[in-house]
Amino acid sequence: MLKMLLLLIVMTLLLIESQSSEQIITIGASLSSEKMEFEFQQAVSHLNAKSKQRHIKFQSSTILMDSNPIRSALDICDKLLTQHVFTVVASHPNSTDHSPISVSYTCGYYKIPVLGISARDSAFSDTNVHTMFLRTVPPYSHQADVWVQLLVNLSWYKVIFVYSADEEGRAILSRFQTLAEEVNIRIEPSIKYTPGEKNYTSVLEPILKCTSRVILLSASTEDAEKIYHDAELMGMTGEDWAWIVSEQAFDAYNIPVGFLGVHLVNGTNEVNHIKDAVEVIGEAFIRLISSDNISSPPTGCNESESWSNGDDVYNALKATKIEGETGQVSFNEKGDRVNPMYEIMNINANRRAMSVGLFGHKDQAIGLRMMGNNLTWPGNVHVKPKGEKISRNLTIVTLVEKPFVEVTPLPKDGVCRPVYPAKHAFPCKNGTQDLCCMGYCMDMLAKISKDVQFNFTIHLSKDGLFGSFERHNSSDKKYWNGMMGELMRQEADLIVAPLTINPERANDIDFTKPFKYQGLNILVRKTQKDSSLASFLQPFQDTLWILVGLSVHVVALVLYLLDRFSPFGRFKLAKSDDTEEDALNLSSAMWFSWGVLLNSGIGEGTPRSFSARVLGMVWAGFAMIIVASYTANLAAFLVLDRPEALISGIDDPRLRNPNEKFKYATVKGSAVEMYFKRQVELSTMYRNMENQKKYYTAEAAIADIRLGELQAFIWDSPRLEYEASNDCDLTTAGDLFGRSGLGIGLPKNSPWTHDVSMAVLRMHESGFMEQLDNSWILVDSKSNCPESNSAPATLGLTNMAGVFMMVAGGIVAGILLIFIEIAYKRHRGLKEKELELARNAADRWRGNIEKRRTLRQTLQKQKEEQLKANSFQKQLVKAPSHSTAVNSVAPKMNSNNTGTKTMIPPPYRRPSLLEATRERDCLPPPPPMDYPAPSYVPARSGRTVTWHNPSHSTDNLV
Prior knowledge:
Strand content: 15-25%
Distance between the termini: 220 Å
Radius of gyration: 64 Å
Shape: elongated
Structural class: alpha/beta
């Protein structure tokens, strides 16, 4: 018996000890009905059954929420706090929407956390007022999260925000502005109205003047009914309009067809929210008690001190995350529920609300998920509105950039006519100057405007720049200049130019799909050879040329000496036994040596001796090697020689490590400059270009390349290829780098972006863009240059001019030598003529002497004959019988006054030579003073010359 008593005592003590160590957590609740109280008690019992922590027990204590805030606060003090509640679950009064604000104020004063399950007023997000309030439902202002995602999905980026002038309206506007700025959604106007008005026509009138046609409405159900009525009368609920309304406004009975709204899933299911709230409290206290000890909460409103562990419990509740009946339950820093589940609702043609999408956290998916494209839009149409008041007259901004945009003066008749290869030419303005614009982009613009159906006017950029960030008036804020700035300031609707797509520009404007893919390249001048006239001498060095020339003359001299002194240097001719051919002279040896070297035929003057011929054979082999080597090197130096680029590409050391003499640049404020500024490895090049001369247009830089003032210009490859094809002195260096695309620029979220982009894609698919490339960049310009960069070089006049100059020099030298030979011959002929005249005179003198000698001999014979005749006459005188005969034949004697008797020759006899010589009868008279010398024709006979005088006649001689 004693043992049984002791065992009972021990068991009792153990039970008391276990009960004393168990932590009891009382959860209070202020609910809307007795049914909700029962559901709350069931949820707490389920929490205890599910909890594996035996040292924690949860209890429930409930009261009904009173619509009178004062009574509600008194009930909290008298009925809940006295039960040592650690936290309170608060609902709203039955059949009303009054918020449990009195519960939040009372419990917040004593640092007792309150978990709301129906309070959606945005005022509870103010942690300065509601310090200990959390809620399992999101505030109404969180609808802005859904609106932003829905606008992005529908590609509407310009909206009109209509909100009530109360705390709820201001809260949703503030949240929407914060979120919209991150995705570049712009509120064109935000229109505030006063709740409770009977007519809102004056509020809605400014909307008609706006370009946006997307209206966001935050209003109560009563105000929304009046707004819908007035908007329908003003024609704002028909086609081309779009409305997205809040949850309260979506409940209006007269909501028009096609309106969109949001609906919180399980937002009014109080039972599910009670279950989720109890589960959140259980998770938080189990985690908190396992690590820390929690003191008891206040026992009433009579205490002046707040609960010391209230903040710890509040923070533990905020950090809790569960998958509950209403989805994922978690809280932000303000105690508001995050990632709730919303339905996207749409009013169909039958004026019934249909779910067309979901937003929130479900099945590991977060965000907006639209279910198909079968939405009904205002006006009972199924085509999505563009979201803006569409103007079909667009303003185009561009700038001059060959071959994409070229300008010509406007003709006097005001009609622009395209110049080949352009197919279209449009009037454009440069300030007040009227011009005609044509080119690659203009032909593309004509095609796009026809497909998308809009009209346009074109003007050139005011500052002629593509667009870059720059500071204005030394301020810290940067602005876009150039075409980008005009588009941002709404001075243009489209940029149709070779505008490079880069991240900096894409942050502030929209781009279509690229109409051309390109890269960056480097434009330089081609390098030319310095000594073009002596190009044919390049295969050999100067030393080798000198040795070859010296060898020619040395070999000629040796050939002459060998043939001269060789005993076999002379040979008898085959047809003559007496005549021998002369040995090789020095001139013939020189001719033979040059002829063998230059591979010309040798017709005469060849070596005769065996020794000389051996040397000639060796010289012929030497000449063959020299000529073959020269020919091979000539092909290497001339045929394969071409002008080359000055640099090899972007990695050339002269670009990476520049010096003062080598200058390169790009266009200031262009996408190319942004590329160099963005690339860390090109920072040295960027700094060097910053210190060089600034170029604001590509034309200025290309002009300096031609003049040699700039050594390299870095720019878009299509433009540089175009310039290199049309100017044979220019070429591109290296491979492409910094590849990107050229696109058409539009304002952010422009309604034309999608249509223009699709038109560009259709032009790519149809081959239209390829035709533009062939017409403007690739084909026709290649024929302007005599040779292509990829084809082998051919010899031209520049390369072989030296050879022609050498031939011309030979001709001039020959002409000079012939004149020298003629002058020399003439001088030598005069000397020979003088010698001939002197020889002729000597011959005449000899002839005269011979004649006189002959005459003397003749006269001597005549004297002898005369003497014989006289002696014969004397004999006849002595014989008289012959006197008569003698007298008849004897010459008559003539006597003169002196008594001297002269012999008169008989008339039949000519004078004797002696007589004729004495009387000059047989000699010609002396010539006059101006009588020219007679032309004597010599008749050669060996070394004897006989001269005949035509004036002399042999008849005068006896």
